[in-house]
Amino acid sequence: MIQSKPSPLSHYELWKQWKSEGALSAKQELIERYLPLVDYAVGRLAIGLPKNVSRDDLASYGIMGLIDAIEKFDYERGLQFETYASWRIRGAMIDGLRQGDWVPRSVREKAKRIEDAYQKLEQHYLRSVTDAEISAYLNVSTKEFQQMLQEIAIATVCSFDDPIREEESETRLSLMIDEKAINPEYKVNEFFLKESLAKAIDKLTEKERTVISLFYFEELSLSEIADVMSLSPSRISQLHSKAILRLRGALGRWKHQLMQP
User: Fold this and answer.
1) What is the pLDDT of residue 141?
2) How much is the mean pLDDT over the chain?
3) Which one is predicted more confidently, 75 or 3?
């Protein structure tokens, strides 16, 4: 866990020098002060990624995200810069990985097959489906299904940062709102998105909900979660993959319903 940093308001003069006076030295100092945010993001995102993905590359993407955040942040609104910057940093890393096509096509195809299976079966049964039901739908054995989950684990770590729609940059969790220009239609869509996500989380198994909570809200690593739950890291990866694919299926249904006339 990253240690809490002082509020950006305590650096008011530094922000003022950069934003109002354009002092590059102030901008450089802000970058240096918030570099630990990049290190922290690299540590979390690197979990489960292939060995060919360089942490240095991730850090480079993250630094670009940090610079972008510093350039766009409005310090006069009194918001928490660390929260805003963390989204920008992680988003920049995801964009860099996506451009590098670091996940093999075969892995993406398997993830899409399982996501579609969860979406169709859970819409049909109106409940969480079992591994056996998913395996039967995919025409594979339960053991083969578990192996598929293991293979696609690297693809689901970042799935929440994928765009809601392919042609848009807005992600499933980056619900960053400009409070000065609230769009009523956007607020309605955001409400139903959050409601759909909450309902989907409720339908997860207890272990899947625990993994999601510990990883995304408590910000533990998968290995730390394995210790907490007394399970192997590979089992935690499987639970994480299944939970994410269930949630993606639910959000896919939400998007389809939203586009209905």
Assistant:
1) 92
2) 75
3) 75
Task: Give percent helix, percent strand, percent coil of the chain, each to the nearest 5.
Answer: 70, 0, 30
Mean pLDDT to the nearest integer, 193-216: 81
**Nearest alpha-carbon partner for 257 in 170, 192, 160:** 192
Q: Which amino acid does the sequence have at 14?
A: L
CA torsion angle 224 227 233 237 (round to 10): -60
Predicted structure pTM score: 0.48
Residue type, 244: I
Core vs surface per residue 140-172: b (16+ CB within 10 A) or e: eeeeebbebbeebbbbbbbbbbeebeeeeeebb
CA–CA separation, 12 and 199 (whole Å)? 41
CB 38 within 8 A of CB 89: yes
